[in-house]
Amino acid sequence: MSSAIPASVTRLIDEFSRLPGIGPKTAARLTYYLLRASDENALALAEALRDLKSTTRYCSTCYNITEQDPCPICSDAKRDRGLICVVEEPLDVVAFERTENYRGLYHVLHGAINPIEGMGPDQLRIKELVTRVSQGAIREVIMATNVGLEGDATAMYIHRQLHSLVRLTRLARGLPVGADLEYADSVTLSGALDGRRDMQE
Q: How would you label 98-129 residue by residue, b for 16+ Cβ within 10 Å and e otherwise?
């Protein structure tokens, strides 16, 4: 960067640029916003970042992010302990919890198999999932990996590891509420057709 820009400003722009979805222009805007912000606001952000790194950890059971171990979901006695929903990321847990419809446990893989990016099964929490299921208390594992090449490859790999131990199900693929069929892509439409079920009154 230009020598007209102080090194501390350049450093923060560079650090923001490392974040996913943040390009150099957005990084510069964020940096200059913080320069104009009050000391209180800027220091609150710094403190929040410090607390994030010092107080959060992974749950030793499900590998979701938490401040206590085991996490509140794993320690909730009202949860169905025979049901595990396998997701790729902690944000997927948040999405399921928002529905208020799922009352089982989770297992967070922290990614999906993607050889191009150097992400193989050993980089994910698959061994830990196999260990959990092998202990015998689980009756069903719901594969809720993302729809796509990586998510499907991950689901198939886990299926090969667990199919002899437990019932495995995959989330149905289908159309979002309010969608018109004419705008649906062929993969989504095929998934909706394959995931059809009996109508009930």
A: eeeebebbbbbbbbbbbeeeebeeeebbbebb
